[in-house]
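anyone seen this seq b4? input:
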Amino acid sequence: MKFIIKLLLTALIVVALSQVLPGVTTDGYGTAILVALALSLLNFIVRPILVILTLPITVVTLGLFLLVINVLIIYIADAMISGFEVTSFWWTLVFSLLLAIGRSIIAKMVDRGDS
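predicted toks r here
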């Protein structure tokens, strides 16, 4: 149940960010739910592989390369979902940072409700 709540709230954040950021577009709420689901799956499957493969450069850049990995994950979701589009690297970076902040707030709120 927590996963569905987090997924729907992440989709809400995706819609809100697509309204605020001019470089990010989403066709609607259904597309945003697909984007949230795709990002969840990509973060679960692809992100650990990319982190392990790029570990030396991540260590050299003191972890800043993880931002580039987040951008790559969003680009992959952009390629997978037809109604979701991000125009440039910088808008993807801003979208990634704001989405991460929003998802961490959601995680804290949902987990706080259980205790």
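The radius of gyration is 14 Å. The chain has five helices and two strands. kinda curious what u guys think
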